[in-house]
């Protein structure tokens, strides 16, 4: 269990409703944007310096007080679960290397990891539907397996608090350049109730549009891969027909709930978000995190600055 899991998980919001204490990480997708690397290696296990992306995501959950994590996996992806298993053979070998031993043990002690399989990749909503028997009718967090936020600028605690206060669906948005709206799900919003303002920059969601052209976009607020959902989402997923791409979309199930009166709110996140779902974002993530590391950041930054200015990089001297 996480060292963080004791305190906020038992917290209760001002409404008297308990906060979500379980997280679901849908990670069964085919990761086509990262082929061929992801033919045999799940994108969730691509390393960012010396930890797989998935570990940063589980750490984000445990930092918010969530110690129970369900990984939704698929064919060829069971190695994701192995990462959190105990390795007594490795521990024995590392007995005289305390730092490495601690790093290995940390992965085993982070959280209680559970797993289930999505037998066919029929969409994010379909994947989340498999969490029902683990989660029951309690609210829960969903963390997409290819994106995470900077630990010093957390997002999830505010989302958990907001969900406990409203009892509804809670999303997170980040601002994109107006020209880039066609790459994201974009929300239309209105001001939230004044009594929610102590939680952060909260908006009420009035609709969602998938990948609109800039001229059709209702805002420049794009959907981030974090959700806190009420248990009623499972019934909504069952009632959701395949939508865009023939997939059962989580967005459509949330829209169903919203149209039936469930409040939908979002936190506008202004911290640092790392998107590792495709090569450019992944490279940017590795460079940023490596640059900030206490153990190798100074040397890496020095090398990077020299490289960027060198002929080899096609930089300013060429
Ligand atoms: P993406 O839309 O990023 O799809 O899914 P993907 O397969 O991961 O990657 P691309 O677009 O083909 O490159 C968003 C999240 O939903 C999960 C993915 O694993 C990812 O975390 N997902 C998607 C499932 O678990 N099952 C699905 O059927 C679809």
From TrEMBL:
Gene Ontology terms describing biological process: UDP-alpha-D-glucose metabolic process
Gene3D superfamilies (alphabetical): Spore Coat Polysaccharide Biosynthesis Protein SpsA, Chain A
GO molecular function terms listed in the Swiss-Prot or TrEMBL record: UTP:glucose-1-phosphate uridylyltransferase activity
CDD domains to which the protein is assigned, alphabetical: UGPase_prokaryotic
Domain Nucleotidyl transferase: 22-289
Pfam families tied to this protein: NTP_transferase (PF00483)
Keywords from the named record: Nucleotidyltransferase, Transferase
InterPro entries: GalU_uridylyltTrfase_bac/arc (IPR005771), NTP_transferase_dom (IPR005835), Nucleotide-diphossugar_trans (IPR029044)
E.C. designation(s): 2.7.7.9
UniProt key word Membrane: no
Record bears the keyword Lipoprotein: no
Major enzyme class: transferase
Reaction(s) catalysed (UniProt annotation): alpha-D-glucose 1-phosphate + UTP + H(+) = UDP-alpha-D-glucose + diphosphate
Family that this chain belongs to: Belongs to the UDPGP type 2 family.
Name by which UniProt lists this protein: UTP--glucose-1-phosphate uridylyltransferase
